[in-house]
Amino acid sequence: MTVADDKPIALSALKPVETKVWIADEQGNGNMVDCVEPRAMTQADIDRVVADFAHAAKRAIDAGFDGVEIHGGNGYLIDQFLRTNSNHRTDSYGVTRENRIRFLLEVVDAVSHVIGAHKVGVRLAPFITFKDMNCPDIVPTILEATKQLQARDIGYLHLSEADWDDAPVIPEQFRIELREYFSNTIIVAGSYTQARADEMLNKGYADLVAFGRPFIANPDFVSRLQHQQPLADLDSTTLFGGNEHGYTDYPALS
Question: Phi and psi dihedrals of 48, rounded to 5?
Fold first, then answer.
């Protein structure tokens, strides 16, 4: 094994400039550490990762899950292929929009082949720009990918929306175009309130609204919404823990 073989792989041999990763032990104790410079994936690496997605999806269905969601957002590997600032490849996976969405579509096709397209969802994050993710071409790239995902008749598309205080506002025109290109189920998520969720549903921009952090702090979240009861605040310091503290020990409203 060569020294190069010891390096982690990524689509391009780029070391993140402004990004650190959280490394924690089993008790949840850890800290942010610098990223190392990876080596660029070979075609064999890409083929293996695509096969890994399909294998994992098949195991999930065998274990009793109804479907799988392919995470193509938030700066993870598929998202990196989509963005010009992270995708510096010059082969059939880089340069053009068609090439940059190729890896996503190969993963979707491989997973759909083993479990069926109707059991496949894809999560994308067109307007999240933190951690070196700011790409000037990401929105048209996402829309082009959406057309291809509709052609494959996948189960749903899930938009991961920025959820910090000064997060970019998603233009209404984007939501209109997304609905025009994708007629199957659209899910949105990202600091939604009941009022904002109702607005998205009433306008037809989404079919479902996902709630993550409020559900952690409120195990009876649905009941609280139904009865217009106050929500408990989430302790964000426990989000990266390694045990049940801050995940399953929030009480229901008495």
Answer: -65, -40
Phi, psi of 249 (to 5 degrees): -110, 15
| Rounded CA separation 72/234 (Å) | 26
Can you give the pLDDT of all 254 residues of the chain as single tens digits? Answer: 333 457 788 889 887 776 777 777 766 677 777 778 889 999 999 999 999 999 999 999 999 999 999 999 988 899 999 999 999 999 999 999 999 999 999 999 999 999 999 999 999 999 887 766 788 999 999 999 999 999 999 999 999 987 766 667 889 999 999 999 999 999 999 888 899 999 999 999 999 999 988 999 999 999 999 999 999 998 887 776 667 788 888 999 87
Distance of alpha carbon 75 from alpha carbon 86, whole angstroms: 9
- Strand 39-40, strand 68-71: pairing: unpaired
Burial of 85 (0-12, 13-18, 19+ CB in 10 A): middle
pTM over 0.90: no
Closest by CA to 68, choosing from 56, 77, 82, 52, is 56
**Does residue 122 contact residue 149 with C-beta atoms inside 8 Å?**
yes
Helix (H) or strand (E) holding 201: helix 194-203
Q: How far apart are CA 189 and CA 128, in angstroms?
A: 12
The residues that are catalytic are 76
Q: How far is CA 51 from the centre of its chain?
A: 19
